[in-house]
Amino acid sequence: MEDVHEVVQRLTAEGIDVVRVAFPDLIGVDRGRDVLVERLPLVMGHGLAFCRAVYHTSPQGDVVEVAGGLDAGLPDIRVRPDLSTLAAIPWEPGVAQCLGDAYEPDTDAACAEAPREVLRRAVGRLGELGVAPVAGPELEYYVCEPDPGSPTGWKRHGDAPGNVYTAGRKGDPEGHLLRYLRYLRDFGLGVTMGNHEFCGGQFEINLDHSAALDAADRAFRFKSAIQEITRSEGRLATFMAKPFNDEGGSGFHVHLSCLDDAGTNVFDGPSEPHGLSEPAHHAIAGITAHAPALTALFNPTVNSYKRFGPDTLAPWLIDWGLDNRSAMLRVPPERGAATRLEVRLGDAGANPYLIVAGLVAAAYLGMRDKLTAPPPLEGYGYDPATAARLPADLGAALDAFAADAALIDVLGARFAASFLAYKRDEVARFQRYVTDWEFREYAYHL
Question: Fewer CB atoms near the end CB (10 Å): N or C, the chain?
């Protein structure tokens, strides 16, 4: 790694005078601070102090009672820039961004709640088996325009039916996709291609496969970048699971493969059933066995479960299939070096680090314990007679996560306790809230 003083000289020569240090909170929102470039050496030495409640603060700004936060007097964490992730921000002249790692104050111990650390822990456990995970994220999102007459204040951008898998101005009248593809390429996020998705105002941009931590880093920065650029244009980009009643949800699919020390894909098994190796079958077994608990990480909001259901192309049952998009886990048809598992469980509102960490942890447990996978799905994937159902709401998913001791052992007990407390508070707040649907349904007649 470059010496920090050399970094300052290089950035200054490139016309950059501010470094934005960003890090993910518990739900994947980017938190951070803008640092004048000449102050970077001091920040590298001492880190940036943030209140630990950054991990316990709701989207509405309320601090949730999580152990180690309010009860401990709201202590600090210390965030140190990871200069290996520095990149100039194409839409913010003079500004570069880097990710930060969170530590306990006055020590070099990583903060157990930090999502990057949770993923590192899972990758380390899988590394004990002599393999390294590779991930490829796929995310969908909606672009919205202001609409003062709408109950939410927003309407879908370029909203028209039937623009499924299109490119160009037909479904994207102002060229959103082309502009963003170029920005994200220049930001170094490894984007490859994009298109208009199934629904009006919905888009998908694909990211290349890479080592698990790098893939999660890029997915995190991708989501933040899309939201930031869209805000600068007076619009809203949302990765919310299902923002509209009359359109489908947004998914977060992850492709997973594993490499040995020689760089060989250990999931490839030319002479094995379905062309998948024993480790691949064990990984599939681990992911299906721990799917109820994974649901809490992959679908972490009350809204997430409104995306689920038959015929939605969002999974509903715990199953896997060969090139079958109605299954929770799809094995794409490519083999050899491209052999991989596509897990379709997640929604786009999830924290990328926790999705990838949970997936790696479940695959590790399946491979470590040599679990046996159920038979692959044949045909239609929404028949509850063929497989067990996934948890139907966030409360049930959190109960499943809390009960999965093996998965929590990999991800970390402190992280799990904080995540559960934070999310159970969310469920409780929602259960107390009177919705528009309830007023419309009952007020006139009751």
Answer: C
For residue 439, tell me if it sits in a domain.
no
Mean pLDDT of 277-293: 98
Rg (CA), the chain: 22
445 in any annotated domain: no
Alpha carbon dihedral 431, 436, 442, 445, in 10-degree steps, equals: 160
**Separation between Cα atoms, residue 128 and residue 123, nearest integer Å:** 9
Q: 253: which residues sit within 8 A by CB, 6+ positions away?
A: 137, 138, 342, 343, 344, 346
- Please tell me the distance from the alpha carbon of residue 28 to that of residue 139, in angstroms, as a whole number: 14
Q: What is the CATH number of the domain that holds 89?
A: 3.10.20.70
Domain count, the chain: 2
Tens digit of each residue's pLDDT (9 = 90 or more) over 302-333 = 999 999 877 778 888 999 999 999 899 999 99
Cα gap 432→426, rounded to integer Å = 10
Would you give the distance in Å from CA 204 to the centre of its chain? Answer: 14
Q: How many CB atoms lie within 10 A of CB 322?
A: 15
Residue 300 tokens, joined: 């972490």
C-alpha angle with apex 180: 27 to 328, nearest 5 degrees? 50
Q: CA–CA separation, 263 vs 258, rounded Å? A: 9
For residue 242, what is the domain's CATH number? Answer: 3.30.590.10
Task: Tally the C-alpha atoms within 13 A of residue 70's C-alpha that lie toward its C-beta.
Answer: 10
304 or 63, which is more confident = 304
Domain boundaries, position 18: 4-111
Query: Cβ distance 348 to 240 under 8 Å?
Result: yes
Phi, psi of 20 (to 5 degrees): -95, 115
Is residue 161 pLDDT above 90, yes or no?
Answer: no
Regarding whether 169 and 63 lie in a shared domain, the answer is no
SS (H, E, C) 245-267: CCCCCCEEEEEEEEECCCCCECC
Residue 178 CB-density burial (10 A; 0-12 exposed, 13-18 middle, 19+ buried): middle
Q: Are residues 276 and 372 in the same domain?
A: yes
- Is 402 a member of any domain? yes
Of 85, 111, 137, the last residue of a domain is 111
* Cβ-count burial 74-85 (b if 16+ within 10 Å, e if not): eebbbbbbbbeb
DSSP state of 160: -
**Alpha helix segments (H runs only) across 14-46:** 40-46
* Cα separation, 376 vs 367, whole angstroms: 18
In terms of domains, do 157 and 20 share one? no
Does residue 79 sit within a domain? yes
